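WARN no homologs supplied; continuing
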Amino acid sequence: MATLPQTDIVLYTSGTPNGQKASITLEELGLHYDLKNIEISKNVQKESWFLKINPNGRIPAIVDRTPASNGRAKEKRIFESGALMLYLCQKYDPENRLNYTFDTDEYWEVVEWLIWMQSGLGPMQASNHFYRYAPEKIEYGIKRYQTETKRLYQVLEDRLAEQAETDGADGPWIVGDRMTIADIANFCWVNWAEWAGVDVKSFKLLNQWLDRINERPAVKRGLDVPEPFTMKEKLKSKEGEEEYAKHHSQWVMKGQEADQKKHG
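OK structure emitted
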């Protein structure tokens, strides 16, 4: 077993699908990190000090202050959740617990499914803003993005069915014979299916995959960073759903208005 340095990482995050990708990866790898809760409802991510870490003004981001192998102090910022996950595996996962050896077929498949999530599933499911927050309920927008989210869930369902033919008893997984950052990245969005108004239970293998990942202790810890993950519980009742939507839509729309004034 490789000996890893005591990590000195600062995680800047909030309780969103993208933020949970970072915290779950850190927890699964057992890395030490300090937590900075970025209150996106107050637009903290747009403050000048944070823009020096992520010029795009989004979470998550990390600053890795772990000393170099020669003991020299250093600081490395990483923003964008996909880049962050790849960085953590490259630097601190020599046994490939969450990835595969660089340049193997499995490594590039992990990259494929990670980028597929970043460019497809994440943006399309996030666009269910039309369903959850938009002040006007525009039927075209709601149907467009819920339908596309379901289509992408079917892509994952088909992939898991293909993997089930070769995976071990604890699978199937998106790539190979174990959970990787490809699974974590996609899980963190599928786990918010209720928010998008999509029923994941109609996708048998995907629902089982979701349950398997949710049962992992490190995942449970990562979901509760930086505060307890309560979305699923709140959306179980009509009253909770309305309260959740009202609270979040207020700051979402306020942030959108600020961006329109600055960039419109």
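Strands lie at 9-13, 33-37, 61-64, 76-79.
OK
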